[in-house]
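[09:14] KT: can someone run the structure on this one? pasting the chain below
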Amino acid sequence: MGTRKLRHKFNAKAVIRQGKRYDSKLEGRYAAKLELAQKAGDLLFFLRQVPFDLPGGVKYRADFMEFWADGEVKVTDCKGMETQLFKLKKAQLEELYPFQLNIVKEA
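[09:31] RB: done, structure tokens below
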């Protein structure tokens, strides 16, 4: 039997940047912006696919956690489409943790 290629439910195309896989072109472009900010010294570093625990044993993975030189810490998710499930998880995340989730729709 042949292997079947799975498609993303919203037709997002995964990309590889500098040997790292990103779930969408948008996420890859945003990572490129973060890398530039890091080279410029504005961004100290960033983490990818950061897990957060939500009620009911659910884990939410944010695309990025950014640590900026001015002391700001941002948690960012790249979203082409915001589903009802995402909106629910975002509300839970912001209720449980002391930050607002930064949503990037274009990079």
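[09:33] KT: thanks! Residues 25-40 form the longest helix (16 residues).
[09:34] RB: yep, looked fine to me
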